[in-house]
Amino acid sequence: MSLSVVQGFSKSLAMTVLSEIGDKTFFAAAILAMRHPRRYVLAGCLSALIVMTILSAAVGWAAPNLISRTLTKHIATILFLGFGVWSLWDAFHEGESEELAEVEAELDADLQANGKTKSNGKADDDDKKKKRPLFSQFFSPIFLKAFSITFFGEWGDKSQIATIGLAAAENPLGVVLGGILGQALCQTAAVFGGKSLAKQISEKFIALSGGVLFIVFGIQSYFSTMDNPKNELESTQSELMN
Questions:
Q1: Burial grade of 116 (CB within 10 A; 0-12, 13-18, 19 or more)
Q2: Cα(48)–Cα(161) distance, integer angstroms
Q3: From CA 212, how far away is CA 79, in angstroms rounded?
Q4: pTM (2 decimals)?
Q5: What are the pLDDT digits (tens) for 179-234?
Q6: What does the alpha-carbon distance between residue 80 and residue 178 come to, in Å, rounded to a whole number?
Q7: Which helix (H) or strand (E) holds 68?
């Protein structure tokens, strides 16, 4: 495994874990797992995040082919520094566990809206589930609900845009592998740790850690951008001499 893949993997893993722990989709997975079978919730949430990671990395990989690599790295630097300042601002100006209460309220409203017609036919539904093929059981309404909540909750989120920027600056394969592992760790913790784990998480500490990490990535991206034109010039001169 090349050094660029390892570097992209480690950066993506660290960024994903610090971005997703305590995030809205983390709390949604924790609450859904308390109300529905965990395997369906974990499969739905994780599938959505894997798809999102691959799509984001693909956009980041394509960016240097559409615009110059130097400009792409400048944009990535600005994104990392901006997200770092944003995370630090959130850490000092937002209260603890506000997002958990917000997600729980949304899911409670959805449960009340959809649960009125389910109470009478619960026994029949259980019998039908046992008779379903394995494939149709896996793609159950619970799976689709977990998938859609997670996918659309993550769309346009800070972590998605950061993944695009990271894939533009680092090896996309490493970014995808690190992102998927990070998402798997976070979603597994959310589903099996449940609401008690979500309540024990210090959102301020996570935001501070994520802010510092983004700023470190931004500084590193800035210096790699400064070195890149020099390396490109030396490479061009070497080719002309040969």
A1: exposed
A2: 16
A3: 13
A4: 0.69
A5: 999 999 989 988 887 666 656 666 677 778 878 888 888 888 777 755 554 454 44
A6: 17
A7: none
Task: Write out the DSSP string of 112-179.
Answer: HHHSTTTSTTHHHHHHHHHHS-HHHHHT-HHHHHHHHHHHHHHTT-HHHHHHHHHHHHS-HHHHHHHH
Task: Quote the distance between the C-alpha of residue 96 and its chain's center.
Answer: 21
Cβ-contact 83, 162 below 8 angstroms: yes
- Structure tokens of 233? 């010039």
Under 8 Å between Cβ of 138 and 43:
yes
Q: Could you tell me the two tokens for 94?
A: 């937002």
27, 103 Cβ separation under 8 angstroms: yes
The three-class DSSP label of residue 136 is helix
Distances (CA, A) of 234 to 35, 71, 237: 61, 19, 5
Q: Do residues 161 and 79 make contact, with C-beta atoms less than 8 angstroms apart?
A: yes
d(CA 167, CA 201) in angstroms, rounded, equals 28
Q: Which helix (H) or strand (E) holds 21?
A: none
Taking a C-beta distance cutoff of 8 angstroms, is the pair 43, 143 a contact?
Answer: yes
- Segment (H or E) for 59: helix 38-66
Six-digit token pair at 184?
A: 């798997």
For residues 73 and 137, what is the distance between their CA atoms, to the nearest angstrom? 45
